[in-house]
């Protein structure tokens, strides 16, 4: 009886050893299989993830962790590729757009050097100043757009009085509107409206919208803000748009005639990017020879009472 029991124990032990050896063999094959997949994935750009053949809790977890790392690496790679494409596009358009004002500036400098007439020299100096202002605006818009489009752009959130900020920005350009014979018509709520936003980005939004109105607007500008944080800016157009509204929000798509008007071709795109960065919904439209921009601040708006209670 004891001999039978001993044989049985030996058989069980042998079965366990064989099972362990088999598991070790299958595990080694699984590791080799996973390694081969990783090697193939690293040799070429692909969205493929690794697959497993041996199903066990340990290999399940290992596969999940490897695939998570692969997905994260691809996300970072795509972000870097996006930045690289953006930089190449900016450099290409910068070289194209800067060439025109630089050529013009060079021409006026030559005329200025050759002219003996004080009247002509003043005229050339005025034109030089205008071209330099356009070049400064272009460079400022390009670098602003590049910063805002960076996924790592740090938002400096603070409490901002939206109504006061809006009015102050438009009134800062009051003389410019007067010089163009344009009237400002405000429709504002009685109470203050507070948002949680980035004041620098908000400044970029309002200044670019105002400059767009000054370049392309005519006669009257209507600025309407309601208590829910919905802002609408309407302005008459000096001439009908030669491009669709959607094109105006695409970088470098405004065309030569648009740029000759003094615009850099990036203003509205900067507005769109800055608004998106802060969680503001934006839309544009043309109705009855009026250009309309709407901004919905409702997602970042909070009640003035809440603000006063927290003080």
What's the structural blueprint in terms of helices and strands?
Elements lengths: L1 H42 L13 H58 L3 H32 L7 E5 H11 L1 H6 L3 E5 L6 E5 H18 E9 L4 E8 L7 H4 L7 H5 L6 H12 L2 E7 L2 E7 L4 E2 L1 H6 L2
Parallel strand pairs: 2-4
Antiparallel strand pairs: 1-3, 3-8, 4-5, 5-7, 6-7
Helix pairs in contact: 2-3, 3-9, 4-6, 6-9
Quick rundown:
The chain folds into three domains: 2-77, no CATH class; 89-149, Signal transduction histidine kinase, dimerisation/phosphotransfer (DHp) domain (Helix Hairpins, Orthogonal Bundle); 157-309, Heat Shock Protein 90. It contains ten helices and eight strands.
Strand order of the largest sheet: 2-4-5-7-6
Q: Could you state the order of secondary-structure elements as H and E?
A: HHHEHHEEHEEHHHEEEH
What is the CA-based Rg, rounded?
32 Å
Average pLDDT metric? 80
Number of extended strands: 8
Shape: elongated
Query: Which stretches of 5+ consecutive residues score pLDDT under 50?
Result: 252-263, 304-311
Biggest β-sheet: count, sense, barrel?
A: 5 strands, mixed
CATH level 4 superfamily of the largest domain? Histidine kinase-like ATPase, C-terminal domain
**Amount of beta strand:** 15-25%
Kindly name the structural category. alpha+beta
* CATH architecture annotation name of the largest domain: 2-Layer Sandwich
Span from first to last CA? 89 Å
Helix segment tally: 10
Taken together, the total number of domains comes to 3
The CATH topology of the largest domain is given as: Heat Shock Protein 90
* CATH domain class of the largest domain: Alpha Beta
Kindly state the percentage of residues in helix.
55-70%
């Amino acid at each position: 009886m004891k001999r039978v029991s001993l044989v049985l124990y030996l058989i069980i032990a042998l079965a366990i050893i064989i099972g362990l050896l088999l598991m070790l063999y299958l595990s080694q094959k699984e590791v080799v299989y996973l390694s081969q997949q990783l090697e193939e994935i690293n040799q070429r750009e692909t969205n493929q993830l690794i697959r497993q053949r041996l199903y066990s809790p340990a290999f399940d977890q290992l596969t999940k962790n490897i695939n998570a790392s692969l997905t994260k690496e691809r996300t970072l790679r795509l972000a870097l590729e996006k930045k690289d494409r953006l930089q190449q596009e900016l450099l290409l358009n910068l070289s194209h757009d800067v060439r025109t004002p630089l050529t013009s500036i060079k021409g006026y400098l030559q005329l200025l050097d050759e002219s003996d007439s004080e009247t002509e020299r003043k005229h050339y100096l005025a034109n030089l100043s205008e071209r330099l202002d356009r070049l400064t605006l272009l460079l400022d818009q390009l670098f602003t757009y590049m910063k805002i489009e960076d996924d790592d752009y740090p938002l400096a959130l603070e409490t901002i009085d939206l109504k006061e900020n809006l009015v102050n920005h438009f009134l800062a350009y009051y003389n410019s509107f007067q010089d163009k014979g344009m009237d400002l018509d405000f429709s504002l709520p009685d109470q203050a409206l507070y948002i949680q936003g980035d004041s620098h980005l908000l400044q970029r939004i309002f200044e670019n919208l105002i400059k767009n109105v000054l370049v392309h607007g005519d006669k009257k500008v209507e600025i309407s803000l309601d208590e829910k944080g919905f802002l609408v800016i309407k302005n008459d157009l000096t001439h009908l748009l030669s491009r669709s509204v959607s094109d105006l929000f695409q970088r470098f798509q405004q065309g030569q005639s648009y740029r000759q008007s003094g615009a850099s071709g990036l203003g509205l795109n900067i507005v769109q990017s800055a608004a998106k960065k802060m969680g503001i919904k934006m839309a544009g439209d043309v109705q009855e020879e009026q250009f309309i921009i709407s901004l919905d601040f409702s997602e970042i708006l909070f009640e003035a009472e809440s603000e006063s209670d927290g003080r």
